[in-house]
Structure formats: structure tokens, C-alpha cells
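S1.2 Input.
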Amino acid sequence: TTASAAARRHGKRLLWYVLGGDRNGKLKIGKRAALALLLATPTLSLPFSAHAKTKTINPYDERRLLQQNKKIQEANRAPDDFPNFIREGFQVKVVTPDNYITRDSGLIYEDVKVGTGDCPKDGQQVIFHYVGYNESGRRIDSTYIQGSPAKIRLGNKSLVPGNAGFEEGIRDMKPGGKRRLIIPPELGPPVGPSTFFSAKQFEVFDVELLSVQDCQRRTIAFYSDVVCT
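S1.3 Output.
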């Protein structure tokens, strides 16, 4: 498209996502109410049918939206090269530098630093720092601020950020590696009070994998637990 060609001239790659329904494939609110809410809240992403009609963004409008996003990101003190999320109707266009990689699952990532050693496996414990952002670049959560890294075992659905996209993104990292993950709504956590994202939207995580530990079950009398070293 004209918009894509214009973006490539600036060394950017455009990735299109059409948001679908909820995890059961059903709309949770009426289409008219959803559209009104979307127009009133540009940074909110709601579940829509994948068959919704789409239209091409005018290059001038796209540049204007990019400029608006940059101003919002600067106000939120977003990190350098933070991705842009352009919303037009039912579409979300993700704009990233060319060095980002997109997987078939929809996960987008960039290796800031490649670590050394072996990648973690199911049953092993990974120790890592992360900073989570919403689409506008506002920091949502940070283990650095909390003062201690996160520790979780892979494969038992205990991931702290609570989503499949995060676990997929950390699985092939190596200790010492740093990676930025852009997680689409379908790979993110369910919306609710237990998560720090209040709506269906893309999530951005900067992850630093510190170490990987082996784990084994320990049983003493009637007590049993898992020890990782």
C-alpha cells in the first residue's frame, strides 16, 4: 500500500493486526457501543470480529498519528525506539525498526543483547528482570523498581506477567541476554483485576534473563516442595 511504501522509505516496517473477539470468539459488547468507546479512547483496544471492514490510512494522517504518539511517549518517558501503535477503525498498525522479528504466533521481538549458554527448558527456573509498558509507553510494572528479579518455573503456567507471549519470548533467550517483546492481545493475559492491563491491547516488555536453575522435588516426611539451584 501507499502507507507501507512511505514507511519503508523511512526504514520502518509496518505490521498489521486485526483484533478478533474474546477467547471464545464472541463479542462482549454491542458493536455500536464498542465503536463509540474506541473513538472516545484511542489507546484502548477492544475485542472485535476478525471480519470487520478495514480501510487504508492516508499517509498524511499516518504521519500525524505518529507525531501524536511520539509526543505521548515522550510525556510518558518511554524508552528509545519504542514501537508505535496506530489505530484506525478496527485495525492496529505496529510500526517498528527493521531489526524486529515477527513470529507466526504474532509475537514480535528484538534482541538487544544475545546471552551465552543454554536456553531454559520446561521444569527449570528462570530468574529475570523486566519492565512492562502499555501501548503509549507508560511504565506499568518493573522488577527493577521492586528491588528483586522475578523467579518462575517454565511449563507450569506460573509466569509472573501471566501470559503465553511472555513465556514464548523468554524460552529461547540465553543467560545474560536482553530482549524487547511486543505481545499481541491474543497472547496476553485475560483482562481483569488480577492483571495490570485493563483492556485488550499490545504489551511491551524489556526483559533481562539473569540465570537458569535446575529444579528437583524434595520430600521430607509428609512435606514436599521443589528446590531450584
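S1.4 Remarks. The CA atoms of residues 57 and 88 lie 7 Å apart.
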